[in-house]
Amino acid sequence: MSRARDLALPALYWAFVIYLLIPIAVMVAMGFKDSRFIGFPIENWTLRWYGEVVRDQDMMAAFGYSVFIAVASTAGALVLGLLLGLFIGPNRFFGRAVLFALMALPAVMPGIISAISLRLFIRAIDLEPGTAAIILGHTIHNVPFVTLMVLTRLNALKPSLIEAAKDLGADELVAFCRITLPFLRPALLGACIFALLVSFDDFLRSFFLGGFEPTLPVLIFAKLRSGMSPEINAISTIVLLITAALGIWAERFMRRNRA
């Protein structure tokens, strides 16, 4: 009985992994098919659709626009998340749990509710839909993830290190720059990569807050309304590879810094 259970658990695990990977593998394969018909069998393989993606000015413009929004919103989220983490982490004050719950709310709120709320919010402050509105929405959504990573890392920081720096003559700013900030670097890098990927892939907030210039997910959605094409599979594969490469690099960097 015990042996059967030991064999069943790995089998279920790999069956689940295969179940998750099969749709991705099919999407990647369709990007190399020498036909606009999406389906099997694949008789001829080609890189033509990747060339079409590079030559598609609308696609490249949307890709660059999404990168710009991701970088801008990530920068804002890092600053706000770091400040919130430094305020909530070491301090004990009345209402701390309430502040923490409010901070985490954008991360746990359903995406469609968050997008509608942000749309109503920008109308209330007379902010037109467009780049600034998307950056604001993505920043609000990413702040909880940055703050949580900062808080997790801060919990591992020994207070004696800060006290030793102050005993040696360092003030609060010097102690922060020499001790706290370098210690938080792996968490900040991980939060940066995560926020970049979340913002780049964010469809709902970009759709509700965007103006006439679409982000890449919004443009892909618009193209899907007229039917699937291998070009969409090609750009999706490119984004998948970039995402995987950034994730693997960030994971290896953080492992090196923890060692």
Description:
This protein has helices spanning 2-30, 48-55, 57-88, 96-108, 111-124, 131-154, 159-167, 172-201, 204-209, 216-224, 230-258. By secondary structure, it is mostly helical. It has a single domain, classed as MetI-like fold (Orthogonal Bundle). The protein is globular, with a radius of gyration of 23 Å. 26% of the residues are buried. The model has no long low-confidence stretch (mean pLDDT 84).
Reading the helices and strands in chain order gives: HHHHHHHHHHH
CATH class: Mainly Alpha
Total number of beta strands: 0
**Number of helical stretches of at least 4 residues:** 11
Round the mean pLDDT to the nearest integer and report it.
Answer: 84
How far is it from the N-terminal to the C-terminal residue, by CA?
A: 40 Å
β-strand amount: under 5%
Q: What name does CATH use for the topology?
A: MetI-like fold
SSE topology sketch:
Layout: H1 2-30, H2 48-55, H3 57-88, H4 96-108, H5 111-124, H6 131-154, H7 159-167, H8 172-201, H9 204-209, H10 216-224, H11 230-258
Helix pairs in contact: 1-11, 2-11, 3-6, 3-8, 4-6, 6-8, 7-8, 8-11
